[in-house]
Backbone:
């Protein structure tokens, strides 16, 4: 076996949170293609997410999106999750699907709308108290489409004020996690467009505020692993939203577009002490517009695991020595050696040794779960991202 | 007056076709913000488009989108248009909002679906025969999201076959106009991603097939006016879809993001004989997600007109002499002189001299039309892009 | 006259520092095209820079680059500058043209090379003490070409240590200005690639450390005026390196590629209190690879002035009202009105009223200076950027 | 062994041409870092290139660059190559390092300069007749830095005329291969910026003119394998210049930045019949600015070989079936399976079975060649890219 047992121990600590919304329909502005069997309520989303964990052992928690995942009783939802072997995780707010937010939410010039957006986040914290969630993740669609449309500086100040009001309400062990995104749905400026802005804003709030890095939210060519390194160094990397992209925020299966980039990102997480560190949450945030959802998520967590295994294989001592000697080709070669190592067989064996299927994709296909939900889930409407 | 009368004569020949769908609701994958007063049927769209022409004298025709603009009687629609002072123009097909097209339309591996897509285009040609339209514009959402998902080469061959079947049905004075787009809604490969592909495909069809250049459909940094030059040189520039972008296919008001680029594009149109040339159609294709639709279109056609006026002001003789002498700063300076000239006052005066309002934006606002449609158009549903 | 006198008063306060190296030969990796008459020593560079100021009144100071501009006596150089009507400004360090710096300078893993790079900066501060310069500007070529080549985190820590050592030596009224750049000459990672990194590093140093924003040093699509706003808001915008780009760090004449972007940047400077504020230095940093150098610089400072005039014309009250009312088209229209206003005639008149030539480009051409230097400056070698 | 013998047979047909200039010094506009032992004449370049072939069996020919590789006797050079086990390949012209070409070469408005550039190419063809080379590869630095600097359309027409004159001189079995490049060293427009332009130009010449695709010469985000597919389909893909990039035309070791992209490109070559097809030449074109040259080239050809092996492992039948059934995840999975397979051990065994070293990198290091050239090659000057 190529993978040392110490590495397997590290791999056994890996936990990747799934987004409840990945199991619902999604699409582009041109069309949301509906799929048979998609969940019609948060309980069914949790059930689907639990399938991913059942077959991979990698996804023990599920992130919620409010209001999509509002339920009358969060203790019922929590119990449902636990009955299915998973738990509830991060709570994500939503300030982009209400008509009031057309020109902004927490940055809006109208105090009424700002307060509405703040209140929504306070409600999210109330839900977190019921679900036992630690993290409130905030991604804002706020921005403008035309130069002059609004005053960017005032919006930034209002952003600070609104976040402060939300931050105040956090419990002792809760965190505010601020996501940034290069563009979309705003097309001239975005109020939190880059890691620097997110970092400056969360630093102004306090220790319980950290940054969320979504791997699809950068300008073309951006060296994402550099940002990972920097945020870890600055003590402000709170979580990842993993996904993959060729162009913009394509939200493809993680690792699909550039597996080597995924490897480099995880390599830097490991280097900076962010791996198997509860302060740095691994999460998926992606769409499965044309492929089936549950296997799409299984494929994604496996990709993260495989690249983590490769990253953990890097010979750190040899690498340090090659770097110190200025041997460019040797240092690069040590990293590439790890990347090119095929860890899949070892991982399959190890999986079996832990009572998991060697091939989670096949196991899911053979389980009959997909056919069952496609037959059973007829009628009802789905509340979600692409709704 | 800065603008010579010969230039004004040229400007009086300008005609910009409006897209019927610009008057309906639109949005991003995150949210379509509805607006009061949006049209509920193709007749109301035509009425709105006619307002743009009424106040600017620049937009005498309206492009249709099938099936969004299907009506029981196209002669009724045609008469409605003429009664409002405009005519029906290009017919746009739509092969991206039917579940059958999830993995492709005219490029699909399933012959049934390909035939369905071909038949849709043949229906469009039937409609063109009723509306008197010359151009069938084809933009395809076809593509894949993941490497290996489908065979790109076979899709390209099937694209040729399908387009050939459509081309065959064209009347003597009709044209097939093939649009290209860098990406979206497909995120790995797009079947017509660049001008080269569109050019190769239409060249294989014949003289009645030409290329449509949408100004928002290129990779970052692309020199669009170069493509304009090249397509004119090759005799294959059929039409423009004008809009503006900072990032991807943002579909902002034309000229909003980079007015100098718009100027350079029109400069190259003029240089290459594409201005006031019926073979090169000027069209808008944009969204007004957050601003009002009719004034958004008025602003857009005025921007095109203003930049055309500037482009026509370039001193061609002086420019040629500076270029021939290799005087980089002088040659660039002559072009910049034209761009920096404020033509707005002259255009306002000239507009008035032709019985048009000096300030079309204010004239529309004062006309009461917007208030009227917001009051009257209640109930009904809108069929369209963002529906 | 369109420009109000209060605006002219503001314009009279504008001062743009010229880079001494813009007057020397420059080029690409493929070829440095030599030009007749380029300076052969720092004194000649100052003389050329003084011509720009003489004809425009806009460029009263000249930035130096060490070691390119090393002279036996800085008091002689200072007197030469003053005799020519200008003064010496920012001192730029250079850690990219010594063989020792192949794998890094202040971030190098070898303490000897780091100390050499630190010592170079200390020497620069010594020179600043002689020239009376306030700012030490640091742009670092440091980075790597291949993943794994060096440890990015350690480099970042070493960067902090080295900058701290340099910072310690600053005089009471001196500043350390840290420039960032997306890429080049390193092609995998750059040690100061973005404003966030520069901001984090200078914040860790203290109040006398600030950020330099070079307008050509960003990823494609980056909203630069947003960064201007943010750095002003955070109190860390120290200076600008103005230039223009279509693709990468093209270093074209400022305003040449996207005058509207230049306008928006200056608009945000004005909005944030950075205009006519000595803490925010305006500087050019560009190449004139194929055009003549002195008129290239004249064209550049005029472009900055013209866009500043336009930016100052924005009707702030009307803009605020339109923004507050959520009128997207009106707010954008107010900004565009200012941009489209042709201020060149007014500026020419005003220039004449101040004893400056109405048309600085023509005045320089007519002055005979260019012919003189082309004849006189024969022999000698030029030390500089493209050397 | 994972690799079937039929695949090994295919791999044994692989031949990658090396660029003579990769062995000389190179760099960026900021600095060319000289390396010990670099060749001082074309003979020494050939010797170095032969080392790559000796250790890998992959690089049997060497491309020349004129005038860098001009020698008194090409038959001597040819014999020297043959004595070292390689042969002379493609001849590359150079129209970017002469002062006359500052504003263009074959597109220049001055007929004298155009003729000079044409004559240079005719001289190249004369040399090809002596070296026995088949391909004349033309990469043009032609373009402009500022809008208006020159007339793009006239330049395109002059490009056609000049290429026609060159094409006329080709021998019966010779080819003209026209390379395109997105930008650099021109920063506004480039005369052959994209595959469409190259395709249109070579199509107008005739069957002996084809396109060269350099993998580093595209806009950000471009799907390069699509272009490979399209050019193969159109019968116009003449050759590859392989290298790698994170940002612009970085010219890194092939496969270094995105090995998965290299895999996808080769996959499409195989699919389109371009593999082991003499009409599609594989060539490297890259720099080794900071790493040693010979091992940099060895690493590069090995990367091409490894990715070719992976691409040949794709189960075509299964892939076709998955594609036909519309199973997105399965089809993608089949491609990824091949990519993730570690072929290095098999290739090492196979190499040994053919009398080649299992590990060419180590074998070269152990050979003493590098030490020998570093000691022996002292004095002399190097003519080349970074000179």
Residues:
């Amino acid at each position: 076996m190529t993978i040392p047992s110490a590495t397997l121990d590290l791999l056994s600590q890996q936990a990747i949170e799934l987004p409840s919304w990945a199991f619902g329909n999604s699409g582009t502005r041109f069309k949301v293609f509906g799929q048979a069997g998609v969940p019609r309520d948060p309980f069914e989303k949790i059930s689907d997410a639990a399938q991913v964990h059942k077959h991979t052992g990698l996804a023990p928690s599920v992130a919620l999106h409010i209001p999509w995942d509002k339920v009358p009783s969060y203790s019922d939802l929590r119990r449902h999750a636990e009955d299915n072997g998973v738990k509830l995780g991060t709570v994500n707010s939503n300030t982009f699907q209400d008509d009031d937010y057309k020109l902004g939410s927490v940055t809006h010039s109208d105090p009424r709308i700002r307060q509405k957006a703040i209140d929504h986040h306070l409600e999210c914290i109330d839900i977190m108290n019921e679900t036992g969630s630690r993290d409130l993740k905030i991604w804002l669609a706020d921005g403008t489409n035309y130069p002059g449309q609004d005053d960017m500086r005032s919006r930034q100040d209002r952003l600070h004020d609104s976040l402060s009001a939300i931050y105040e309400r956090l419990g002792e062990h809760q965190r505010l996690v601020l996501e940034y995104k290069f563009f979309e749905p705003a097309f001239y400026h975005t109020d939190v467009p880059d890691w620097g802005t997110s970092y400056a804003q969360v630093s102004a709030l306090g220790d319980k505020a950290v940054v969320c890095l979504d791997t699809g939210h950068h300008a073309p060519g951006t060296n994402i692993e550099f940002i990972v390194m920097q945020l870890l160094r600055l003590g402000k990397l709170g979580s990842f939203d993993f996904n993959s992209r060729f162009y913009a925020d394509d939200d493809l299966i993680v690792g699909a577009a550039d597996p080597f980039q995924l490897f480099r990102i995880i390599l830097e997480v490991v280097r900076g002490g962010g791996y198997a560190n509860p302060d740095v949450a691994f999460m998926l945030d992606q769409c499965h517009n044309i492929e089936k959802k549950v296997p799409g998520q299984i494929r994604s967590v496996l990709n993260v695991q495989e690249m983590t295994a490769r990253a953990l294989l890097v010979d750190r001592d040899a690498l340090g020595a090659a770097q110190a000697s200025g041997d460019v080709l040797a240092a690069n070669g040590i990293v590439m050696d790890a990347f090119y190592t095929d860890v899949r067989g070892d991982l399959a064996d190890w999986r079996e040794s832990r009572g998991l299927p060697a091939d989670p994709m096949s196991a899911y296909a053979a389980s009959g779960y997909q056919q069952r939900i496609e037959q059973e889930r007829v009628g009802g409407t789905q509340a979600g991202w692409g709704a």
Observations:
- The domain at 11-304 of chain D is CATH 3.20.20.150 (TIM Barrel).
